[in-house]
Specification:
Number of helices: 5
Strand order of the largest sheet: 1-2
Oligomer: single chain
Shape: elongated
Structural class: mainly alpha
Distance between the termini: 47 Å
Largest sheet: 2 strands, antiparallel
Length: 93
């Protein structure tokens, strides 16, 4: 989304949007300088499908506690039984 569209949605001017996005410095009446940091542009880390997600790990722990078999859990998650077994060993080692 562009700066103009984002500013329209939030209800601020484009110049305010630029200051929020890139940060700015203000000189106060007292002569002090106040710096405003820019808004972070960090994107959430994308975890490879090769690794178990947090929700998958929680599901495995819950189902193992409920005495489900490793193979049944693996089928339900669409994962290899070896992957579920490794997670079990990792938590119970």
């Amino acid at each position: 989304m562009g700066n103009s569209e984002a500013c329209r949605i939030v209800g601020i001017s484009r110049s305010s949007g630029n200051r929020w996005r890139h940060g700015h410095t203000v000189v106060l009446k007292s002569g002090d300088i106040k710096k405003y940091a820019p808004i972070s542009h960090q994107r959430p880390a994308v975890i490879s499908a090769r690794f178990l997600s947090e929700s998958e790990r929680i599901t495995i722990a819950y189902l193992l506690h409920a005495r489900r078999s490793i193979r049944a859990i693996a089928v339900g998650l669409g994962r290899s039984p070896l992957t579920v077994s490794r997670e079990f060993r990792r938590k119970h080692a």
